[in-house]
């Protein structure tokens, strides 16, 4: 009796401080929202977990117990998994319903993996592949994690290239009718059961010589309708052309489906697609951001949801190109408050491109799937896990916070008059007035003043604007916040790397080549309606598990 009371009190508490939300999800303008009365925003912050390679088994289960992997994903602050699957897992009965995990691993002579499985997941080893897949989904649900099923490829294996026969409708392994049959099978498998499957990505990275807009409209529409017809609860997630980079054609011609409030579009964005090092980084970031907006980001402005279902970086932290990309990505992801899925949780694959126990350097877990590969990198990325705005997160006045994309930190108070970089949980909020004064949102008597190069900026009491500096956004990235120092030099906000204090320095890289790095001076003024006074919204949905995890 006592225990029941305790639990119900605790659940009541949870519901008061908005820790949980209810499924199914739907969309409201560009936002994904929950099933509560007013539809509160649910920000998808997922991690990709591949299960589409040769063995068609979720990776890593030879290294760690399923339960422990799910627990790690939850503890790292992700609220969902984009779980990939090969089409033939749903359409080839002799494969999915008959072949067991053990047989599949043996087929590729992965004997070490079999032994590892025996130790870590003995109860899954002799399940048919499709049952093993369902076990993974269920276990993630038990840990309060949502799942998006992503049809990644047809024939199991590493993806993708233009001529691999899996690229576009009409390719050897992408018969539209087989694809639709597979989508229906998978969607109905998780229909009518109280399930944590909240969405389906219809097809990963369409590509190759056969791709064309007319077939895209025809088949993607058929696929979307097919999924919705058997599972009307889930989000239908639609990718574009050219390896999931191009949705620009939606400007001219709408994608029409018979259902409402369940359609989401998706894109991918990786640093290795371009060189981020060849020229001025402000210029590159400005140009790439503009390109993303032109190819897909414009959808948000039209009130259509967009999900970055893959992005990722080398987690070793020493890949300069990826690190530059990441800073630019983080700025846009915070600014637009994107829903996203990081590539990947994988520490190592059973086998990838013929290499057994392939080490995945883009994985947040290490080769053993036991520890976080680089907690500095993860910490940075986790700064965009909480939503900044959206339905249900409204405060009366929207405000701007100063986000520092290359560290994932925000400008916070160090003392009454001084500022430093700190956690984005409780950032100072700002208003850039029409007179270009940066004043605090909540204590409007304070404004930001620049002194000399290398010196800290300070908050000054606003006295008819007399002591305030005037600020403007500079450089092609529009992320350098510039003013004039006391002695009349042009300066930009910067971070003193020794103590994280906010200072001003000469503006870096307004011109010039790739030899200079402006990133310490990048600040993005991000719109936020997050309350400073409420705990940060926590996005797992299963009350029971959330409750357990919070107590722990
Ligand atoms: C789900 O339930 C509805 C209503 O009972 C039924 O019409 C439908 O066929 C079921 N769908 C699946 C995929 O089982
Ligand atoms: C983690 O990444 C950072 C860069 O963000 C790098 O400086 C550091 O060396 C990396 N640490 C490890 C343990 O790989
Ligand atoms: C994996 O774990 C084993 C046993 O704990 C350890 O000996 C090994 O060094 C680890 N390997 C890597 C690459 O982390
Ligand atoms: C970049 O510019 C600097 C100074 O103008 C020059 O010394 C350097 O050689 C240039 N580097 C490249 C890669 O062009």
UniProtKB/TrEMBL annotation:
InterPro entries: GH (IPR017853), Glyco_hydro_5 (IPR001547). Residues 1-22 form the signal peptide. Residues 65-345 form the Glycoside hydrolase family domain. Keywords: Glycosidase, Hydrolase, Signal. Pfam families: Cellulase. One of its GO terms (biological process) is polysaccharide catabolic process. GO terms for molecular function: hydrolase activity, hydrolyzing O-glycosyl compounds. Belongs to the glycosyl hydrolase 5 (cellulase A) family. This is Glycoside hydrolase family 5 domain-containing protein. It comes from Arabis alpina (Alpine rock-cress).
